[in-house]
Amino acid sequence: MAVREFRFFREDLCDRCGDCFAACPYLELPQGEAKREIGGLIERGSSLALEVCNTCHTCDAVCPNGADPYELVLEHWSERRKQGLPTTARLVTPSEPCNIWSCLKAVMPADELALLRSWDDFSPCEEICLTGFYTSVVPYLLQASVLEGLPKIVGSEALFGCAGDIYKTGRFDMVEQISRRLERVFSEMGVKKVVCSMSAEGMVLEEILPRRFGADFAFEVEPLDVWLLRKLQEGEIVPVRELGMKVTVHDNCLSKMQGGRLQEVNREIVRRTGCDIVEMRHTRERSMCCGFGAAAARFRVMDIMSSGWRRLKEIEATGADAAVIYCPACLFILSVIKEMAGSRMPFYHPVELVEMAAGGEPPRRHEDRAWDMAAVISNHLVKYALFPSYRKSFQPAFISPEIQPLPQLPRGDRLRMKALAALYHSPVVQNRIMRSVISLGFKAAVAAYDVRHWGQASPRA
Prior knowledge:
Elements: H1 19-23, H2 31-43, H3 49-52, H4 58-62, H5 69-80, H6 100-105, H7 110-119, E1 127-130, E2 152-154, H8 164-169, H9 172-189, E3 193-196, H10 199-213, E4 220-223, H11 224-233, E5 246-250, H12 261-272, E6 276-277, H13 295-298, H14 301-317, E7 322-325, H15 328-341, E8 347-348, H16 350-357, H17 366-386, H18 388-391, H19 411-425, H20 432-454
Parallel strand pairs: 1-2, 1-3, 3-4, 5-6, 5-7, 7-8
Helix pairs in contact: 11-12, 14-15, 14-20, 15-17, 17-19
C-alpha cells in the first residue's frame, strides 16, 4: 500500500512576507529577519522556528494569505518522527500503558473515577457532550449545577483527544487513523450534535479533521463556551450576584481559529459574571501557550516548565485578582506551574465563574490535581532515570477504527503513583518552608535551563 503524502502548507499562497515569524510570540523577529527565516524554512528546511515553536497557531492566524505556515513546521517535525516518537510522548498516547490518564486514575478520588466510568458509554445517542482529552483530567468541572442541561456526557481517552495532541507532533498518519475511528464511533452512535467540553477539540472536529484529512462527520459541533453563553443570553442560567473581580483571560492555541470567535465568547461570559477584564501583553491572536505545546518541538519536560513559567509571569504582571482559563489542558498545566512557582494567583474556568455568579459553589480541585500531575511527571522522570529501555523512542501501535481496550497501568507504576501522590499531598511537602524551597528550586532550574539553551534567562522576553 502506498504511503500517503501529507502536504498542508500552501506554498503557492506564501509570498514570504515574514508576517508569521514577526508576530510569533516566541520569535518576535524584525521583519527582515522574519522574511529570511520563513524563506530558509521553505527552501532548506532550517529555521529557529523548528526549535522554539510552541504550537500556538499565531503564525496561521496572522498570515494575510492563508498559507498555513504552522503546518510547514509540522511537516518538518513529521520527517523527524517517522521512525518513532520521543519517550515523553508516551504520556499523551493512550495506547501506551503509562499515560497521563492511567496514572491519574491510580490516585483520583472515588467520585471522579465514577464520573469517568459513567462517561465511557458509546451507546446510540443523537446529542452528546464530548468530555475531551483533558476534561477527563479535571472531571469535577462538569459537576457544576449550571451544566445540568447538557446532553448525555460521553468520552474516553480511547478517542485520543480527537487527534489534537498527535497532530501537534506531526504524526499525520496517526491523525488519519484517529479520524477514521471517530467517523466510525460517531456514525454508529447516530450522533447529530456534539457539545465539546474542550473548545480546542471542537476546532479539531470542525476544522482540522474535515479540511485536512477528509473526515466526514454528520453532526453539528457546539463548543461548551458557546453553549454556556447561549444559556446566559436566553435566561436559562441567571446570575444572582456580581463577582466583582478584575481578571485576565488566557486564550488557548486553537481559539485563534475562526477569527478568534471563541475568545470573544469567553470574554462575554466573564463580563456577564460581573468581572472586569485586563489583558496580558500577549493576548488573543498573539496569545502565548500555557506551556504544554512547548514540548512538541523536542519533548522535554523542562521546555514545558520554562514556557509555562513565562506565561504565568505575564498573568501575574497584569495585577489581576484571578486568571480565567477556558481550556482544561491549559488549566491543569498552568496549575502545575503555579504550584511549583509558589504563585497565589487563583485560576478559574468560565464554568466555575458562572456557577459562583448563579449562587453555587463549584468543587475547586485545581491545586490538588496539580500535585497529582506532579506525581505523574515525577513517575515519568523516575522511569526515564532507572530504565534504559524506557528512554528509547517508540512506534505507537496502529489505531484501528474500532475502540479497543486500553493497556492497564503496570503495578510498579501504580505503586509509585500512590506513593508520590501521598508524599506531595502530605505535610512533608505542604508546609510553608518546603513550598518556598520548591519555588526557589523551580525558578532557579528554569533560569539555568533558559541560559543554557537560549543564552538568556527568558528567551525572547
